Amino acid sequence: MTYQTTLRSAAALAEAKLISPGQLPDLERVAAQYAVAITPAMAELVETADDPIARQFLPDIHELDVHPDERADPIGDAVRSPVAGIVHRYPDRVLLKVTHTCAVYCRFCFRREMVGPQGLGALTPAELDAALAYIAARPEIWEVIVTGGDPLVLSARRLRELMARLDAIDHVKVVRFHTRVPVVDPGAVTDELVAALKRPDKAVYVAIHANHPRELTPAARAACARFVEAGIPLVSQSVLLRGVNDDPATLGALMRAFVETRIKPYYLHQGDLAPGTGHLRTTIAQGQTLMRALRGDYSGLCQPTYVLDIPGGHGKAPVGPSYLSADGGTVEDPSGASHVYPPRSAATNP
User: Fold this and answer.
1) Radius of gyration of the chain (CA)
2) Mean pLDDT of the chain
3) CB within 10 Å: which end of the chain, N or C, has fewer?
């Protein structure tokens, strides 16, 4: 089926036959609490009510089931936010959240209490001035990560103005944009938008978020190519999700699709403890098993770092499997066989 516009309500999803009429009352309750939006590009990929695309974007009654360990701000943005729009968790870099609007609203979003029509909205001009002044006053800030929400929902004009202001801060050398737009709304990636991000004195990177290989459609790959061919490197971010990418074949295919699209796999996130997302989270042990499978069977280019964002604003920690024994005397190969390290010399072998 071909969809013409972004679907932004449970009623619109029912009219488009993406959910059944019987689900409508329950899913209207979900939509009243957490924003709903699915673009035509993603809606057209939905094959069944529980396929990997549907699980990411269609509301689910389980979102109203909140577990005791879940929290509205699961990674502690608020406690690390000295001024509106800034999260300063690490010494040499800050997040700059210019908007809390997205092209789509993911059902597992760790900022789901902040984004969407009922969320925090865009920074006011005064708030943006204060955020940029904060960056300018701290020479230790080497990198600015522009996020939200999704910064690429902004117009090319606003992005160009933002980059001009960041360009004026000499100690900022790297600007990184985190986005889903090239995947979920490829047509929005125009030559004008790509050009708006470029500055001769800044290294600009774009982090592309996708979680299933089917998301990297020919149109999405073409949108990503516009950045690469303009000299803007791409890295990936994915979230490990139950029923979406929690098997070796799917996760491996996703990483290969990134590499084929000239996107370097960067982070695989353990699902955060956002409210109502328990039905989509895996365990860390499951994630470690998957990472072992990738290491054994897929190119080194296809290996993301598996990370947990520690609740409370304490930052990311790698949580991938260890191959070295606790005493450091043996190391496992990708097939699980154990080997003494350093190897004994031939003279000392029995």
Assistant:
1) 21
2) 95
3) C
